[in-house]
Amino acid sequence: VQLQASGGGLVQAGGSLRLSCTASGQSISRYHMGWFRQAPGKDDEFVAAIFWSGDSTSYATSVKGRFTIARDNAKQTVYLQMNGLKPEDTAAYYCGAFMSWTLADYRPGYDYWGQGTQVTVSS
User: How far apart are the first and last CA of the chain?
Assistant: First the structure.
């Protein structure tokens, strides 16, 4: 599976962005999907994940209530709607695909990763 993240950019605090992660190579319908982020000088951080069917989601406490993950398997795309952005959300955001739901927030548990897309939130 090849994954390509897009939609990042520069936004003011309180603004919104929608990230997309488009897959090719094989169907993502058999994979759970997730987003991680990494800020300069910091460890990577789990952001959100969604079950292969879309029936279940998981969020980091830091983004719960502000971010929404969704997927459209027919379009081979996963989305991350980010509202109420804060400067501390500034990071490179990466999407990944994984098989075991219990590993949703564990980066080594992912099978495939895409390139990151940069999100910068100004104060």
Answer: 37
